[in-house]
């Protein structure tokens, strides 16, 4: 009898343990599902608003989460035919590609140099570079305006190509420095023993191993170019030279009239590629930000 009771108590404990595991798994799943819905909701809202009729949008009695009237393409027609949205996209892409190239050419070698520069001097220089990223853009507004004016770059996309690296290079240098520190020196020393020069070891060995950090630099830079507003609004005056962040609100917000459907369509088109990049390369993106801390 004692053995039977012991076996029964063990079975009950095992059953209770299994139920606890199931409850924990269900709680984790519910939390992740709620978080996924929360993150995806803005995209759903932009999508449904893009194809909603104007009367459906302004009628407060309608359900805002569903189509109360048949979907329409009018909002996209206004966006593509009554504004220079495609031109703004091309301008943004051009500036983004040029700024990415400049940032990589400056931040990657600088980050590697700081990572290999040991001692107090290296630490202080790294901190100083990162602190420049924390300076508010509004403080630099007047000096940059003087520089752009002196170079004759007013109302030109080249003014943005000149200014934006001042934001991206300090942060990306600090980011790449932390990543290069996680790469053992033995790897490049072995490459140099095999006949490569110091630069060759950096280019053929260290850079491929640092692809996650380089990808993070590209995504961060493109995101900043797409969302920056103040300098793009100040330095650019011709509508044909606008970037997306300036052209969309300028032409789709007229006084107290908001073209919500077209605005949401523009936001959806611009944000989807960035969201896809972040999700496809999420593991590398997180690794680039955490590898220095793990080290």
Number of distinct helices? 15
Give the name of the CATH superfamily of the largest domain.
MetI-like
Gross CATH architecture of the largest domain: Orthogonal Bundle
The overall number of domains is 2
Strand order of the largest sheet: 1-2
Overview of the structural elements:
Helix content is 78%, strand content 1%. It is built from 15 helices and two strands. It has a two-stranded antiparallel sheet with strand order 1-2. Helix 4 crosses helix 11 and helix 9 crosses helix 10 (198-209). It starts with a helix and ends with a helix.
Relevant terms:
2 strands; 2 domains; 15 helices; MetI-like fold; mainly alpha; flat; two-stranded antiparallel ribbon; 295 residues
Short description:
The chain is built from 15 helices and 2 strands. The protein is mainly α. Helix 11 (211-227) packs antiparallel against helix 14.
Secondary structure blueprint with pairings:
Layout: H1 2-50, H2 54-58, H3 74-81, H4 85-116, H5 120-133, H6 141-150, H7 157-163, H8 165-181, H9 185-193, H10 198-209, H11 211-227, H12 230-235, H13 244-252, E1 253-254, E2 257-258, H14 260-280, H15 282-294
Antiparallel strand pairs: 1-2
Helix pairs in contact: 1-14, 3-14, 4-7, 4-8, 4-11, 5-8, 8-11, 8-15, 9-10, 11-14, 11-15, 13-14
